[in-house]
Predict the 3D structure of the following.
Amino acid sequence: TLLNADSMYNTPPCWCIYMTGLVMSYLEQEVGGLAEMKKRNEAKAKVLYDYLDSQDFYHNPVQKEYRSLMNVTFTSPDADTDKAFCAAAAEAGFVNLKGHRLVGGMRASIYNAMPAEGVDKLVDFMEKFRREHQ
């Protein structure tokens, strides 16, 4: 379409194209490709899901076969504790954990840019909060 319109059909999203190029270069050159990034993401998600499945304070409402590698949802025993968790998490430096407004609970987004150490620290925080609020 752009060629047929002599490149005047629409302005391509240059910033998005540029940023995509940077990310692709990073994934290929520094990470080792998509397969390696997938392994990293699976390992991060495993740490968080294994923790959630190992105790009874937090609950993950998603069946195992449908769980996301990127967004891990969970709840605490009740809505008031969810609010307390989000407040304490924010105070501890964990931001944007509040779940969707219609669903509630919490959502940990562990996209490609989240290092494994961040997930480890979140699990440590969750365990500390659990011990203090059981």
Observations:
- The first strand starts at residue 71 and ends at 74.
